[in-house]
Design goal:
It is a single chain. This protein is of the alpha/beta class. The chain folds into two domains: 2-331, LarA, N-terminal domain (Rossmann fold), CATH 3.40.50; 351-438, Alpha-Beta Plaits (2-Layer Sandwich). It is 35% helix and 19% strand. The chain is built from 18 helices and 16 strands. Strands 1, 2, 3, 4, 7, 8, 9, 10, 11 and 12 form a ten-stranded mixed beta sheet that branches. It binds iron/sulfur cluster (2 copies).
Length: 440
């Protein structure tokens, strides 16, 4: 009975309105509403009247079956999931969809959000009179790699179909934020603030470092270019690095504060994620919630992971964003159990292995350098560098202070003269070459 108290009055009325369907107990029946942690069906007694409160509403997670990526099926599942949590788009809203564009993968590899899910959201928002952008910054940077990832994952085609804008975050300006937490200062894309609503579109994945990659983790892509790796380097020597890393992830989640999360769990990524080295896993679900942490709690439960075992989810709970008790699944089917593999933890790197870690990381990160022969001395890069790392030297040419540079690589994208190139990053180049050949 206690779980019913978390159902808003409007949802309670919907439950009553669906009384005929309740008797049928078929798919789509709201009767199958389940508790997130116990997995048991809730009592079917008439819900108590409650005072709707935003806190309660945000903790609801709708779970809908979706067996394939057929556009019509995905659209129906996403629409149903949004109705269940009483989400309605507002006309005129500027909406930013943030899928998971891990790398230059194809949809079949299940390492990125499927375009059918982004397409369903584009359709829902554009039909409601909203303008839509699709943006991300992929995991490892080389010039144009996010744009390429948007293309290979099918997002470019979706954007064209619905008249949405594509926003590789390296082409945006950055905002510097003081978090008073772990990533301080924190730089994230200004695109987050230039839109009225950020819609988080994670892919359900096992993650070698984060253990599980879901809603909170997906928001880390709002950190742009190689700044993602710089933040890792800042903490990678901690003996508790794996457990600790959830804290910076929640810093970024709090700064972005997505208003809606819709998870692609139709085919998840099991085994050796988060890249395409993992194994696609038919899971057959779409999840939606206003609370990314609550959605993660429910998703963890479905795949058999203790939410507190996942550092980012545990940290989000410890900061009060959700809890095992408050995150409540509204499932139109009995809440499924699709156990994913819990990867064994790698032992913390010490001695030579730690030095090797540093060596590899240093060579993943490329650094900007400016060609005087190409530079037109327009000064755009100076103005737009959020870290203030570019200054004008004698002769009017810009110069990069690599100590101050946060490796966001925005200057390379801003410079229309093509005067900014990336040097170093031997391993980065190697990874990209292998990925291009093997498409991993
Ligand atoms: S934006 Fe390009 S062309 Fe303009 S000053 Fe910077 S490097 Fe030179
Ligand atoms: S110089 Fe500025 S814009 Fe360019 S990568 Fe460094 S921090 Fe980013």
């Amino acid at each position: 009975m206690g779980e019913f108290i978390r159902i808003t009055r409007r949802q309670a009325l919907k439950l009553l309105a669906g009384a005929a369907a309740l008797l049928g107990l078929g798919p789509g029946s709201p009767l199958a509403s389940q508790d997130a942690m116990t997995g048991k069906n809730r009592s079917m007694a008439a819900p108590q009247k409650t005072t709707p409160g935003p806190r309660r509403g945000t903790q609801l997670v709708s779970v809908r079956p979706c067996r394939t990526y057929d556009d019509a099926e995905v659209h129906a599942a996403v629409s149903s999931a949004l109705r269940a949590i009483d989400f309605t788009p507002r006309r005129g809203q500027r909406v930013l969809l943030k899928p998971n564009i891990m790398a230059q993968n194809t949809p079949e590899q299940a390492a990125s959000t499927h375009p059918a899910v982004a397409g369903a959201l584009c359709r829902i928002f554009t039909e409601a009179g909203c303008t839509v952008s699709i943006g991300d910054s992929s995991a490892f940077y080389q010039g144009g790699c996010t744009r390429e990832g948007l293309e290979t994952t099918g997002m470019t085609a979706v954007a064209e179909q619905y008249g949405a804008s594509l926003l590789p975050f390296e082409t945006t300006t950055l905002r510097r934020i003081t978090t008073k937490r772990y990533l301080n200062p924190l730089y994230i894309t200004e695109a987050v603030f230039a839109h009225d609503l950020v819609v988080n579109l994670p892919k359900l994945k096992v993650h070698r470092l984060a253990r599980y990659s879901g809603a909170v983790k997906n928001i880390y892509g709002c950190v742009v270019g190689g700044t993602k790796q710089l933040y890792h380097i800042q903490y990678q020597d901690r003996p508790d690095y794996k457990e600790f890393w959830g804290r910076p992830l929640v810093d970024v989640y709090e700064a972005v504060d997505p208003g809606l999360t819709v998870m692609d769990a139709v085919v998840g990524l099991d085994e050796d994620g988060p890249a395409a080295t993992g194994t696609p896993r038919q899971t057959g679900l779409i999840l939606a919630s206003r609370s990314a942490p609550a959605l993660d709690v429910v998703a963890c439960r479905i795949i058999g992971f203790d939410p507190r075992w996942v550092p980012a989810v545990r940290e989000a709970m410890d900061r009060g964003h959700t809890s095992l008790e408050r995150a409540a699944a509204l499932s139109s089917i009995p809440l499924p159990s699709v156990p994913y593999r819990r990867l064994p933890d790698d032992p913390p790197a010490t001695g030579i292995m730690r030095s090797l870690d540093h060596y590899v990381f240093d060579r993943i990160i490329v650094q900007p350098s400016i060609s005087r022969s190409r530079c037109t001395r327009c000064g755009d890069c100076v103005e737009k560098c959020a870290a203030g790392a570019i200054s004008i030297t004698r002769g009017g040419y810009p110069s990069v202070d690599l100590e101050a540079c946060i490796r966001c690589y925005c200057c390379a994208e801003y410079c229309t003269a093509g005067a900014v190139s990336m040097s170093g990053g031997v391993i980065n180049h190697l990874i990209r070459a292998v990925r291009r050949i093997k498409r991993i």
